[in-house]
């Protein structure tokens, strides 16, 4: 009893002494937070824990930066984009992902002021997102002409009306513009490519219900191809009344005050590149208009008196170049309603046409003017070759002159200033001429480059194919343009699978780019800091080793992604082959059933009846509808090698033998039945004897 008590007291003393030492060590090592932090920093280089902790802190900060990056909308239709604008309200921005195709079955509609639709990062070349119209009854891709849509903008996107695949809009009421804005202030379309509208124009800037549109900006865009060439054999005498829908289309149709259309490239706009509907105070400046693969009615038209009652005051057409490079432009700049019709009474007031250039070997009339008041036309230059022949659409009276550079009808012009060189002649409807194009003698000079050619040199071959297709003026039915500007990265045969793979690939590449940029910045900062050289030297090798490991993991993930894509493609191929095999097996089974049915008809012939081909034909007629006449009929051979091993004659003889020997086979069946019954009784008796013996043995 006593020794155990002493032992317990000794253990208690040792425990108390340990607690005292631990408490004393804690108090001495944690004097103040600042001292403890300094001690930790001093001990870090010796322990080697600081580089690891700093690296992981930097890694977590990089991951936070990557995760906080502004996302783009990868998978969306017009409904989801419209909902984003509705939810976002004024100032909402919908940023589309680069190199992505968005199929639209309806229009994207702006709903509030200062909203924006653009490609993430605002690229200017082939990386721009593509908005393609897919709805059969839809012509408009983007619409922003509401009363609340002030200062909405479309930037850095490709808008494809898909006219080559869907064709024209036969209903005039549905043949609206591809991009429709207006009715408000400060709206813009910038750095975009607008092509293949199904309606009457690529970009329509509306005046608004109260003529309130003002300050629209259309700049630095590529617009074309637009519309199809007018074919009298297919479209009739009047392109406006074509039963197939209106073939011609404008590039920009603007009816907005104090607006700007500048620094745009228009090509293959079959109606006119720019149509100005009065639009007082508007500047059309420094645009390049040329015809490559499709002819055009005009370059710039100022011929309408609506909706501002013929008021062109302050309208300036300046420093534009109109080039009939390889196709006809019937009128370079048309001023006055007589250029476009037989209206000799309407007068257009105000406006200036200054310093514009005419080029090309296929130009019709250069600058034509009539029915004007208080206009200024000066300092324009002409280097074009003017040609064209009159068509059946031209009027007999008055007889229009031959194509020339500068033409006006002086008696219809009042209080205006015109440069020297204009020829005075009476005319109406100048655009009735047809171009003269010799396919055997194409132009020898190089065509002007397209903006998307300059931005994406690797796509020259594809654009050349598009140019050949556009030159026919007919929509393609067998081929389709590439899905994205950058081409297909994955082609598994399933759009959903392709989108998923491209989504994961792009996210991975974005993360790698962000990490690389951030690491470069941090590396430059570490090298530029004047800290201890030993710590920087200790930090760099470890960070580089970790980054190398991270890079190897990324490469491994990329390799796995490609392997998964290949596996998906192989799986799709295997499923297709399995479907083919299943179909062939079903066909084989069907053939077997037909053969069995045919041979059963042979086996049911009576014994005393000879093999009658006519009777067989009659039975076949009742069963399968084969005519009974003696004419020759081609019947599919449904035979199978395993069944046709015995001929039809042998099968018929076997059936007759079975019927003739019916009595013998009946007696033999009775004998067999007796033998089988006796065998069963014998087996049962033997089993019973064996069971009794086994039971008796167990009892003993």
TrEMBL record:
It comes from the Eukaryota. InterPro entries: Beta_helix (IPR039448), Pectin_lyas_fold (IPR012334), Pectin_lyase_fold/virulence (IPR011050). Residues 201-377 form the Right handed beta helix domain. The chain crosses the membrane at residues 665-687. Residues 462-483 have a biased composition (Acidic residues). Residues 18-44, 442-493 are annotated as: Disordered. Residues 26-44 have a biased composition (Polar residues). Keywords: Membrane, Transmembrane, Transmembrane helix. Gene3D superfamilies: Single-stranded right-handed beta-helix, Pectin lyase-like. This is Right handed beta helix domain-containing protein.
């Amino acid at each position: 009893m006593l020794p155990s008590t002493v032992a317990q007291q000794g253990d208690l003393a040792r425990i108390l002494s340990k607690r005292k030492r631990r408490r004393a060590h804690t108090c001495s090592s944690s004097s103040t937070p600042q001292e403890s932090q300094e001690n930790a920093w001093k001990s870090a280089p010796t322990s080697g824990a600081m580089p690891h902790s700093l690296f992981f802190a930097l890694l977590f900060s990089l991951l936070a930066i990557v995760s906080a990056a502004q996302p783009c909308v990868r998978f969306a239709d017009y409904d989801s984009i419209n909902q984003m604008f509705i939810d976002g309200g004024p100032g909402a921005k919908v940023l589309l992902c680069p190199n992505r195709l968005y199929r639209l079955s309806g229009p994207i509609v702006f709903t509030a002021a200062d909203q924006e639709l653009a490609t993430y990062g605002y690229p200017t070349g082939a990386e721009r997102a593509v908005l393609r119209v897919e709805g059969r009854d839809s012509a408009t891709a983007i619409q922003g002409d509401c009363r609340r849509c002030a200062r909405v903008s479309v930037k850095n996107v490709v808008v494809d009306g898909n006219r080559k695949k869907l064709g024209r809009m036969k209903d005039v009421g549905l043949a609206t513009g591809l991009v429709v804005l207006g009715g408000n202030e400060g709206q813009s379309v910038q750095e975009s490519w607008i092509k293949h509208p199904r309606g009457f124009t690529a970009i329509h800037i509306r005046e608004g219900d109260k003529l309130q549109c003002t300050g629209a900006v259309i700049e630095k865009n590529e617009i074309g191809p637009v519309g199809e060439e007018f074919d009298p054999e297919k479209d009739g005498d009047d392109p406006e009344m074509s039963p197939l829908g209106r073939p011609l289309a404008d590039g920009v149709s603007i009816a907005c005050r104090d607006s700007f259309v500048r620094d745009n490239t228009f090509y293959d706009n079959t109606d006119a590149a720019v149509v100005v509907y009065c639009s007082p105070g508007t500047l059309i400046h420094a645009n390049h208009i040329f015809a490559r693969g499709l002819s055009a009615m005009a370059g710039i038209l100022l011929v309408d008196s609506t909706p501002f009652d013929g008021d062109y005051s302050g309208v300036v057409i300046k420093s534009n170049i109109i080039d009939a490079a390889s196709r006809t432009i019937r009128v370079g700049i048309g001023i006055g309603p007589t250029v476009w019709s037989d209206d000799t009474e309407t007068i257009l007031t105000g406006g200036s046409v200054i310093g514009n250039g005419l080029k090309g070997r296929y130009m019709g009339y250069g600058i034509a003017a009539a029915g004007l008041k208080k206009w200024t036309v000066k300092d324009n230059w002409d280097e074009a070759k003017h040609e064209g022949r009159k068509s059946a659409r031209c009027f007999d009276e008055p007889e229009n002159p031959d194509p020339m550079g500068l033409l006006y009808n002086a008696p219809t012009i009042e209080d205006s200033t015109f440069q020297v060189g204009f020829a005075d002649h009476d005319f109406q409807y100048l655009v009735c001429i047809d171009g003269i194009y010799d396919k055997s003698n194409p132009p020898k000079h190089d065509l002007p480059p397209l903006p998307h050619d300059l931005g994406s040199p690797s796509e020259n071959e594809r654009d050349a194919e598009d140019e050949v297709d556009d030159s026919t003026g007919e929509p393609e039915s067998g081929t389709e343009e590439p899905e994205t500007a950058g081409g297909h990265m994955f082609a598994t045969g399933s759009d959903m699978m392709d989108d998923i793979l491209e989504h994961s690939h792009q996210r991975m590449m974005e993360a790698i780019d962000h990490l690389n940029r951030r690491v470069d910045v941090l590396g430059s900062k570490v090298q530029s800091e004047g800290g201890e050289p030993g710590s920087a030297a200790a930090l760099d090798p470890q960070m580089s080793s970790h980054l190398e490991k991270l890079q190897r993991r990324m490469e491994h993930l990329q390799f796995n992604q490609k392997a998964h894509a290949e596996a998906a493609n192989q799986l799709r191929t295997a499923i297709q082959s399995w479907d083919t095999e299943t179909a062939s097996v079903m066909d084989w089974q069907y053939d077997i059933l037909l053969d069995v049915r045919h041979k059963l008809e042979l086996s049911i012939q009576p014994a005393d009846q000879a093999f009658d081909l006519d009777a067989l034909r009659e039975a076949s007629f009742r069963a399968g509808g084969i005519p009974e006449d003696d004419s020759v009929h081609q019947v599919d051979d449904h035979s199978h090698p395993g069944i046709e091993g015995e001929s039809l004659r042998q099968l018929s003889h076997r059936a007759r033998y079975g019927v003739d020997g019916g009595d013998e086979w009946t007696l033999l069946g009775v004998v067999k039945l007796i033998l089988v019954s006796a065998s069963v009784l014998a087996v049962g008796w033997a089993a019973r004897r064996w069971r009794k013996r086994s039971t008796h043995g167990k009892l003993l």
